[in-house]
Amino acid sequence: MTNSDLDAVVAAVRERIDPDEAERRALAEAASALESRVHDALADLPVDADALQVGSTARGTWLSGDRDIDLFVRFPADLDREELETYGLEVGHAVLPDGHEEYAEHPYVKGDYDGFDVDLVPCYDVPTASDIRSAVDRTPFHNAYLTERLDDDLAADVRVFKRFLKGIGAYGSDLRTEGFSGYLAELLVVEHGGFEPLLRAAADWSPQVDFDPENHGTRRFSDPLVVIDPTDHERNVAAVCSAENVARLQHYARDLLAEPRESLFFRPDPPALDADGVRGHLDRRGTTAVAVVFDCPDLVDDQLYPQLRKSLTGVADGLDRRGFDVFRRATFAADADEGDAVLFAELSVAERPAVERHEGPPVHVRRHAEGFYGAYEDGDDHYGPFLDGDRYVVEREREFTSATDFLESDALFDVALGKHVKSTLGEDGYDVLVGDDVAALAESFGAELGRYFAPRP
Fold first, then answer.
1. Among 56, 214, 331, 437, whose Cα sits 20 to 30 Å from the Cα of 237?
2. Residue 56 marked in a binding site
3. Is 59 annotated as a binding residue?
């Protein structure tokens, strides 16, 4: 592989992702018109404030087809929080009369203008990022920092890196994806001086990977990838990035360098599966699939997915402790406001004998050994105690002989479940699907099952 091979691929990718002049002009005109509307709305308020365009469209790192404009309205730092929210929403609705309110750390208005998706977010105009009163107050500092450092060539490389991250499934700092944010992608490209140097570095990363662009000297984070926010030394920009996504970037960096090709930037998902496809995979694999299916809690993704993952781990641990040997697991949730959520697992063992082996301490550990022997000395509901080597052993009745029995029992509520998942299961109930019955999930989750049964890095 020569540099020219990768250069040719990058050039071809840029042909597909770089906004053309018409797109740039349309965005600039829309942003200018929106800023003018903001200033008109602010003129009617008893405070001094201004508007600032931020994000990728402000820095030239947006991809063709992206239609997002982020406008921040900066209010005085000494303004009461309630007034900030009131004034922010007033301006938002004036600028976007058909918009709707959403909530991050505080409410903001989201709407459409001339085909662009617009977020109009109030924030505090603080002197430094260390003085923030809300998380969004950092964003203008991010914008200023990168605007000073991104020239046209680096901005182009950022676009290529973002498209690469999208292609490999590692782009997005939401808690569903746990990947690379746009800001993190920009910082990494700036830090390494371009897309190719970043690829070559990432191919050799050995976590913990640590970058400190402004030499703040902070080394207290335990995440696999640490990028100290150059505007706020207390923050790791990569905190949400999972170890799996760091490894995913490493894998595909090596893959692209070894064999440059456009397809890595635009990989299609595996085909969705129908019920027959699911049954075919299970038959081929010889595993037993189980699924706990319930009404999806009414939560935003950043609240929902941590709870689903916690619940999946809890259920899997409960199955493993009872000898059902979880082979692989996954969780799915409907994208719509109403739909199901699923805790899915494949088991190597679905049924166990009526008795289980329970080992006690070695006989020479006298106090514990005597306590164990005394607990099982009498009674006819177990075999033993007897000696196996130097230990006491009993064979006692197993609580659950099938995974289904466990999943349908109250013992399911003793495992570590997410708060809202637990309440949903307890109040609304749930279904347990086993074996070929899980094929019914293909109707709602065919795409997710397609990805599950065609795994890749």
1. 331
2. yes
3. yes
How many of the other CB atoms lie within 10 Å of CB of 259? 13
Query: 275-352+401-452, what's its fold?
Result: Alpha-Beta Plaits (3.30.70)
Instruction: Please report where in the chains the tokens 């990494």 appear, as a residue.
Output: 188
158, 163, 168, 172 alpha-carbon torsion, rounded to 10°: 70
Q: 313 CB contacts (<8 Å, ≥6 apart)? A: 416
Partner residues linked to 346 by β-bridges = 289, 328
The response to whether 390 counts as a known ligand-binding position is no
**DSSP-derived 3-state class of residue 92:** helix
Distance CA 377, CA 311 (A): 38
Residues 6+ apart with CB under 8 A from 371: none
Contact between residue 402 and residue 350 where contact means Cβ atoms under 8 Å apart: yes
To the question of whether residue 70 is assigned a binding role by annotation, the answer is yes
Is the CB of residue 295 less than 8 Å from the CB of residue 340? yes
Q: Give which of 250, 156, 248, 135 is closest to 199, Cα–Cα.
A: 250
- Domain residue spans of the chain: 17-134, 152-265, 275-352+401-452, 355-397
User: Is 142 marked within a binding site?
Assistant: yes
Q: Tell me the pairing of strands 116-125 and 68-76.
A: parallel
Topology of domain 17-134 in CATH is: Beta Polymerase; domain 2 (3.30.460)
Class of domain 152-265: mainly alpha
Give yes or no for a contact between 367 and 360, defined as CB atoms under 8 angstroms apart. no
CB count within 10 Å of CB 167 equals 19
pLDDT per residue of the chain (457 residues) written in tens, 0 to 9: 457 899 999 999 999 999 999 999 999 999 999 999 999 999 989 999 999 999 999 999 999 999 999 999 999 999 999 999 999 999 999 999 999 999 877 899 999 999 999 999 999 999 988 889 988 999 999 999 999 999 999 999 999 999 999 999 999 999 999 999 999 999 999 999 999 999 999 999 998 999 999 999 867 899 999 999 999 988 999 999 999 999 999 999 999 999 999 999 999 999 999 999 999 999 999 999 999 999 999 998 999 999 999 999 999 999 999 999 999 999 999 975 679 999 999 999 999 999 999 999 999 999 999 999 999 998 889 999 999 999 999 999 999 999 999 999 999 999 999 999 999 999 999 999 999 999 999 999 999 999 999 999 9
Q: Is the peptide bond before 307 cis (omega within 30 degrees of 0)?
A: no
| Phi, psi of 428, deg, nearest 5 | -105, -10
| The two structure tokens encoding residue 207 | 């976590």
Q: What pTM was computed for the model?
A: 0.92
Do residues 13 and 160 touch, judged by C-beta distance below 8 A?
Answer: yes
CA 10/CA 8 separation, integer angstroms: 5
